[in-house]
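hey m, so remember when u said the tokens were messed up on ur end? i reran from scratch. heres the input so u can diff it against urs
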Amino acid sequence: MTIHSLPARTKTPDRTPAEKPVRRRRGGRRLLRERAGRQHHAGPLAYVLLAVMAVLSIFPLYWTMVAASTDNTRVSQTPPPFLPGPNLFSNLARAWDEAAMGKAMINSLIVAGVIALSTVMFATLAGFAFAKLKFKGRNVLLMLVIGTMLVPPQLGVVPLFMMMSELGWSQQLPAVIFPTLVSAVGVFFMRQYLSEALPDELVEAGRVDGAHSLRIFWSIVLPVARPAMAVLFMITFVHAWNDFFWPFVVLDMTNPTVPVALTQLSAGYVRDQSLIMAGALLGTLPLLAMFIVFGRQIVSGIMAGAVKG
């Protein structure tokens, strides 16, 4: 057999250097996912602690329902009842009629909704200006805004009440809405969020494209700030709904909010605790309904903002 009859040995082509890192990269990503899954797996102790915290958080609402479903004599006994009674709906109906809860809830919905929307919009505008716009006196103005948080709101009650009387808004809802259209806490919260979540390159790119500040705010800032705006709206709405001091000063019982209307249930020498708890339960139900409806969107927005950061 001659040399030429021997079969030619085919040499397998070497893998290019670009192919080897790809496989290593894919394997590395898979390994990282497996490690991340192992690290974030919750153990039995975590579930026990979460269950305890959930019970402690729900117990005040459960006790309110139990107290609202019994009579005043049973609530005052020792030990108190821990199971619901048969008078829940009758006590709710009494509290609804005696406190005029229908009108109070409409007033609270208007007040809390307007205050929450205005606070979110104005705080986002101011937070964007303090975080990304450069102008003279920015730091001084920011310190003044933060400084207003140190002043107790009770110090301004008398001049604020005189101002509302001069405007003819005494005993009316605008007297509750306009003094709280924006808050220093909301401005500082949005400023801190936008400082971290909004890259300077996005703002500069908008400038290069010829967009003015309002256009940048509408097209760039609002999509980035949406998770923080949802959180701020929820916090502001709950705070405005539960606010008692200023509405009690400037409103009367003919045009109350929910906290002011609940004071009618505690009038008299003998207080019906079950009736008061029934009114408190009625005032809490709208907040629970709002969180049930929008809670998932708010939480998903927070998680989306955290992943982007």
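this time it looks ok to me. The chain has a mean pLDDT of 82. if urs says something different then somethings off w ur setup not the seq
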